[in-house]
Write a structure and sequence with these properties.
heterodimer, A: mainly alpha, two-stranded antiparallel ribbon, 4 strands, B: alpha/beta, six-stranded mixed beta sheet, 18 helices, 22 strands, binds adenosine-5'-triphosphate, binds magnesium ion
């Protein structure tokens, strides 16, 4: 039977991903031609190191957005985690290996609580996580207004750990960790039922419920995961700065959302890829690198370029999503 | 012992008593049909027994207890708390609208939540293979890796059925599964149902097609206005009695085809054609469509699923503008670029997919009815409130829409009543050319007669109507011309005395 099975492209859902990846290589190419030393493994390695914590946050954000939600609390959770870590390590002399599971657990509980409010009390994710943001930021400031430096053997040892790559590049512990995490996130997204439930929830919550998707578990799980990952990002961030500061990571939630969107995930949920988010983060980092290589440009240009990119990507998604162009086009 | 036994179930929504003390039971190895008019409470009953809605709690003073028993065990509130929990008991359900996930692939939709695993991870190869095998049982050979939204409603419905059939362990509930299927698909479905029945599965079947009821069911329960009229053995219940039970009165005959009036025909020849298509083609989906429709005629499009009927409407409406050939409308050659231009030319298309293209769930019945009229007038000229009210009141009366008032959100109406609202919306725009794609999907027999009458009436007033339908009987009742489609081609045209069910069927099937 001749059903409607025609389509121009193999799969329109890969399109934003393809465009983002192409854009990354384009930017990288332009930079390499313009500046000496831009096109090196070192730049790439630094890109990963400098954005490790953002990557971790953005992975969590990808899942939340895929499920049709949003999480504005992640930046504040990063700061809170950093502060708790530094206080426990410096003032209470806990060993970092004991501190980490504690803060991650706190993060999971924090996120789960937001998930409970969103699911059972039918509150807007935007409002609940906004409240979560104020709460976490407020708590961090209450614990300590000052930045607390972390001096611990364990920290310096981990920070020194890494592998050398050809081209004077050095890949540190946090980068390796993030890459492993990325692999795990992709597995969760595409090879577990939890991942399937997340996509289903974001695609059409009502249908998903009728199909027997455990809505409560999925919603709570996804926010717990996001806050848990934000807590991990807080730990990664503390390795980057060797301190905990209540005003750290302001606006990181918005960077994460931007990376997710540039990575091709639909803000309405149900469509997107963790891999795309990684490219999204890398593009944002690459723009920053480009501007620092240039030297004459003000660093605020980064924000302007990201703003333009965001608009372009949302436009692209609208364009790709329009039925007239795709679903009905004859081959 | 019945497999599922409901006793004294009530469900009230604000302002509506949808179910009033209903009892109902299904045995293993039985097909139990649940019948009733639009809004009788069939879907609500299904949702109560599958954990979507909680039934009203027992009124303590009346002392009567409501129970839901499955396999002899009374189900607790917890077990009925969500569709997921009920599914675990071995009850699977196809709800009235297609409730699948449009962006996920067909295979993902079929196996969502029960994917086979290998080393703790989902084994996609097996998922794909098994989906393909499953769909082959339903004679569907499609690429299961494509997103669901790429397929027509009928295919989506088959996919939903396939998923449930594959999941059903003890009880299978089907709420109007055949509403957008063709005879052939229905045959396939019934073959599979009979097989499941002989394997001892219990089946609850809801439909408005009485032929299908008599073909497959063992017992019939009739609901009317939320009350149970009775439960009957199918073999003991004559059709006329059944209809009386459903409507609470006798049905007027489905209007018979009138003999074409020779005088009228003569006049028609003199009249200009209202719409004329000449060799219109769209890629490989439509080839050389020719059509000549005078003012005030009704053209019926018959054919199997995917034969290109919907596509003809979409081409005229410029959702997919034609690529070659010419379209003459009102005596002028037209090449609309988008539906907006078609609407401006007083053309209306009432689409096939009610859920995704038809209704806007959160808006009220009134807002849904005036929507298209408002678009045509332009957003800056808002329609006066009292005009809106009179339009919607008229529609509610004319179509017999079951709703407490026009301000109710449309997603709280029963499926058939939503369909009536969509029809009312397009008629309210008073188009010159009205295209209806499967207009009677999910509509009860009483309303069927009304809609047939309505089509005749608007034609008499000079409106040109194109109707796509899988129900040949209905096409025969009102069409002046019949176009039979197959694989994107026009294989036959019938008019005048040649229009009969037998002739159409013959044209559809002789491949
Ligand atoms: N969520 C809801 N909120 C309020 N009222 C509702 C809701 N769902 C159904 N109703 C009302 O309950 C009544 C029964 O609806 P139901 O959907 O069960 O009818 P049905 O028998 O399935 O009809 P159809 O043949 O049209 O599908 C209708 O009057 C409808 O308006
Ligand atoms: Mg119904």
């Amino acid at each position: 039977m001749a059903f409607r099975t025609f389509n121009i492209l193999p799969n329109k859902r890969y399109m934003p991903l393809v465009v983002t990846t192409a854009l990354f290589f384009l930017l990288f190419g332009i930079g390499s031609i313009q500046f000496e030393g831009f096109g090196s493994t070192r730049v790439i390695a630094n890109l990963l190191t400098d954005n490790a914590f953002l990557m971790v946050t953005a992975i969590g954000m990808t899942f939340v957005i895929l499920a049709g939600g949003i999480d504005l609390s992640v930046g504040a959770v990063i700061a809170l985690t950093g502060v708790i870590c530094s206080v426990l390590i410096q003032h209470y002399h806990w060993h970092p290996l004991l501190v980490f599971p504690v803060v991650v657990l706190l993060g999971l509980i924090f996120g789960a609580a937001m998930g409970v409010l969103i699911h059972y009390y039918k509150l807007q994710p935007f409002i609940v996580t906004l409240a979560g943001m104020f709460l976490a930021r407020g708590l961090a400031t209450t614990i300590s207004e000052e930045s607390i430096a972390i001096n611990h053997k364990f920290y310096s040892r981990i920070a020194e750990f890494g592998v050398n790559l050809p081209g004077n590049a050095w890949v540190g512990a946090s980068t390796i960790f993030v890459l492993i995490l990325l692999g795990l996130a992709i597995l969760v997204a595409h090879y577990t039922r939890f991942g399937g439930s997340i996509y289903a929830l974001g695609d059409d919550a009502q249908s998903a419920e009728l199909m027997g998707v455990p809505i409560a578990k999925t919603t709570i799980g996804v926010y717990a995961m996001s806050s848990g990952l934000a807590a991990i990002a807080g730990i990664v961030f503390s390795f980057y700065t060797f301190s905990g500061y209540s005003l750290a990571a302001i606006g990181v939630e918005l960077d994460a959302i931007a990376a997710v969107v540039i990575g091709g995930t639909l803000l309405s949920g149900g469509v997107g890829y963790v891999f795309g988010t990684m490219i999204g983060v890398m593009i944002m980092g690459l723009i920053q690198t480009y501007i620092s290589f240039d030297g004459t440009l003000n660093s605020w240009w980064t924000k302007i370029v990201i703003g333009v990119l965001l608009l372009l990507f949302i436009g692209l998604q609208k364009f790709l999503g329009s039925e007239v162009l795709f679903k009905r086009s004859p081959s | 012992m019945p497999l599922l036994e409901l006793d004294n179930i009530s469900k009230t929504f604000p302002g509506v008593c949808a179910l009033d003390g209903i009892s109902f039971d299904v045995h293993s190895g039985e097909v139990h049909a649940l019948l009733g008019e639009n809004g009788a409470g069939k879907s609500t009953l299904v949702k109560v027994m599958t954990g979507v809605y909680a039934r009203d709690s027992d009124k303590s003073n009346e002392g009567e207890k409501s129970t839901i028993k499955f396999c002899g065990q009374e189900l607790s509130v917890l077990e009925l708390a969500s569709p997921a929990n009920v599914q675990k008991l071995g009850i699977s359900t196809v709800y009235q609208e297609v409730n699948l996930l449009p962006s996920l692939s067909v295979a993902q939709n079929i196996f969502l939540g029960r994917e086979p695993k290998k080393f703790g991870l989902i084994d996609w190869k097996t998922v794909r293979k098994n989906s393909q095998i499953l769909l082959q049982r339903f004679n569907l050979n499609i690429d299961v890796t494509r997103p669901l939204a790429d397929f027509s409603v009928a295919v989506q419905q088959l996919i939903a059925i396939a998923r449930s059939v594959d999941m059903s362990a003890k009880l299978l509930i089907l709420d109007e599964p055949t509403a957008s299927l063709d005879t052939k698909e229905v045959e396939t479905l019934f073959r599979i149902l009979s097989q499941l029945k002989s394997e001892g599965l219990g089946i609850v079947f809801i439909t408005h097609f009485l032929d299908q009821v008599y073909e497959i069911s063992d017992r019939i329960t009739v609901l009317r206005n939320g009350r149970k009229v009775g439960c009957f053995k199918t073999s003991d219940l004559p059709r006329t009695t059944l209809i009386q039970h459903m409507l609470g009165k006798e049905l007027q005959e489905l209007a018979q085809r009138e003999k074409p009036d020779p005088l009228k025909q003569g006049v028609e020849d003199l009249r200009d054609a209202h719409l004329r298509l000449k060799n219109v083609s769209v890629g490989s989906t439509l080839t050389n469509i020719n059509l000549d429709v005078p003012h005030g005629q009704a053209v019926g499009f018959a054919g199997l699923l995917g034969s290109g009927r919907t596509e003809v409407c979409e081409t005229i409406f410029a959702i997919t503008p034609h690529q070659s050939g010419t379209m003459v409308y009102n005596g002028k050659v037209c090449k609309f670029k988008n539906p907006g231009q078609a609407i401006a030319a007083s053309i209306a298309l009432c689409p096939e997919n009610r859920k995704s293209e038809g209704i806007i769930g959160e808006l009220s019945v009134r807002e849904n009815i005036i929507l298209a009229t408002q678009v045509r007038e332009g957003w800056w000229r808002s329609i006066r409130k009292h005009k809106q009210q009179s339009l919607s009141k008229q529609a509610i009366q004319e179509f017999g829409i079951v709703t407490p008032d026009a301000e109710k959100p449309i997603n709280q109406l029963s499926g058939g009543n939503q369909q009536k609202v969509v029809l009312a919306r397009w008629l309210a725009t008073q188009p010159k050319l009205l295209m209806l794609d499967e207009p009677t999907r999910g509509i009860d027999i009483g309303a069927h007669v009304e809609i047939t009458k309505l089509i005749k009436k608007v034609c008499a007033e000079g409106m040109t109507v194109l109707v796509t339908s899988s129900e040949i009987e209905e096409l025969v009742a009102f069409s002046d011309q019949i176009v039979v489609m197959r694989e994107g081609k026009q294989v036959a045209e019938l008019s005048g005395n040649d229009i009969s069910e037998a002739n159409i069927l013959a044209e559809i099937t002789n491949a």
